[in-house]
Amino acid sequence: MPPKPLDYESINKNVKKAQYAVRGELYLRASELQKEGKKIIFTNVGNPHALGQKPLSFPRQVVALCQAPFLLDDPNVGVLFPADAIARAKHYLSLTSGGLGAYSDSRGLPGVRKEVAEFIHRRDAYPSDPELIYLTDGASKGVMQILSTIIGGLGDGILVPVPQYPLYSATIALLGGSLVPYYLEETANWGLDTTELRRSVSQARYNGINVKAMVIINPGNPTGQCLSEANLRDVLRFCYEENLVLLGDEVYQQNIYQDERPFISAKKVLMDLGSPLSKEVQLISFHTVSKGYWGECGQRGGYFEMTNIPAETVDEIYKVASIALSPNVSAQIFMGLMVNPPKPGDISYDQYFRESQGILQSLRRRARIMTDGFNSCRNVVCNFTEGAMYSFPQIRLPPRAIEAAKQAGKVPDVLYCLKLLEATGISTVPGSGFGQKEGVFHLRTTILPAEEDIPAIMDSFKKFNDEFMEQYEDQRGYSRI
Amino acid sequence: MPPKPLDYESINKNVKKAQYAVRGELYLRASELQKEGKKIIFTNVGNPHALGQKPLSFPRQVVALCQAPFLLDDPNVGVLFPADAIARAKHYLSLTSGGLGAYSDSRGLPGVRKEVAEFIHRRDAYPSDPELIYLTDGASKGVMQILSTIIGGLGDGILVPVPQYPLYSATIALLGGSLVPYYLEETANWGLDTTELRRSVSQARYNGINVKAMVIINPGNPTGQCLSEANLRDVLRFCYEENLVLLGDEVYQQNIYQDERPFISAKKVLMDLGSPLSKEVQLISFHTVSKGYWGECGQRGGYFEMTNIPAETVDEIYKVASIALSPNVSAQIFMGLMVNPPKPGDISYDQYFRESQGILQSLRRRARIMTDGFNSCRNVVCNFTEGAMYSFPQIRLPPRAIEAAKQAGKVPDVLYCLKLLEATGISTVPGSGFGQKEGVFHLRTTILPAEEDIPAIMDSFKKFNDEFMEQYEDQRGYSRI
Question: How does the record describe its quaternary structure (chains A, B) (predicted)?
Answer without folding.
Answer: Homodimer.
